[in-house]
Amino acid sequence: MGATSTPPEPANGQDGTSPAISLPPLREVIAAHGLSASKALGQNFLLDEQLLGRIARVPGDLSDRAVLEVGPGPGGLTRALLRAGARVTAIEMDRRCLPALAELGDAFPGRLRVVEGDATRLDHDELMGEPFAVVANLPYNVGTMLFTRWLGGDAWPPRWTSLTLMFQLEVAQRIVAAPGSDAYGRLAVLAQWRSTAKLAMKVHRSAFTPPPKVMSAVVHVESGEAPAGVSAARLERVTEAAFGQRRKMLRQSLKALPGALEALEKLGIDPQRRAETLSVTEFAAVARELT
């Protein structure tokens, strides 16, 4: 898909969005700055502005909300978030994209802060300093790492209010998978034990420049109530062991994890079952029993 025109916005911004601001098509921005997607950085530029607007609407009303974006590139999703009324902090490590983002910041004074750096090395809570939504077309090479980091830790609820993230379709399906399915695994348990996760939309490969080899999808996650007495670190250890040998029975895959087999017995979970048959609630119960 190519870049499309964005419908004019109300001049007074009374719908919560920014007043109409004339911006050049994204293809012109990319051409003017001589940008090309870097395979090493996992970049694929999304140029369809109608689609970008749909993604920006997934987390709900963003008027005056703090939003963290990782890997904005030339700023396609960034402009959609700004048009939706968000205050955006964008982390970008590709210096080639900074001039294009600076121009976007000039068009939305005081609404865009660009941080040059590696998102995997920054403290996002400290950087934002307030509750924030995360909305990002994540670079493929760090997407899962960042996702599990946002879901991890024992401090709950998190400072982020929701995660709206673009992944490869296969990864997205693993996040929302149900027990018993081929896609069900560690990502599903970590995403669902104290959060709700849904697949918001699929995105065809042709929407990107250059087109990736696979389909993509947007996942939306909202934090929920954490089960009492369950440590995130212990749950991660249980799921790592169980799904590390997912074709084996639990009595084999969990035998090296101290207390795990005893926990199965106490909970009445048949040790001959395989990991993909356990519900998220059952995994949480096993983790609660570990010392």
Instruction: Classify the fold: give the CATH topology of the largest domain.
Output: Rossmann fold
Please state the average pLDDT score: 89
How many angstroms does the end-to-end distance come to?
Answer: 53 Å
Topology pattern, helix = H, strand = E: HEHEHEHEHEHEHHEEEHHHH
Percent helix = 25-40%
How many helix segments? 12
CATH class of the largest domain: Alpha Beta
Summing up helix and strand content along with how strands pair, one would put the structural category as alpha/beta
Proportion of beta-strand residues:
15-25%
Describe this structure in words.
The protein is α/β, with parallel strands linked by helices and 291 residues long. It has 2 domains: 26-223, Rossmann fold (3-Layer(aba) Sandwich); 232-289, Helicase, Ruva Protein, domain 3, CATH 1.10.8.100. It contains 12 helices and 9 strands. The protein has a 7-stranded mixed beta sheet, with helices on both faces. A two-stranded antiparallel ribbon has the order 1-8. It is elongated and about 65 Å long. The termini are far apart. The model is unreliable at 1-19 (pLDDT under 50).
What keyword list fits this structure?
291 residues; 2 domains; 7-stranded mixed β-sheet; two-stranded antiparallel sheet; disordered N terminus
What's a concise summary of this model?
The protein has 291 residues and is an alpha/beta fold. It has helices spanning 26-32, 49-57, 76-83, 98-107, 124-128, 143-151, 169-176, 186-192, 232-244, 250-253, 260-267, 280-289; strands spanning 45-46, 66-70, 87-92, 112-116, 132-137, 160-168, 195-203, 208-209, 216-223.
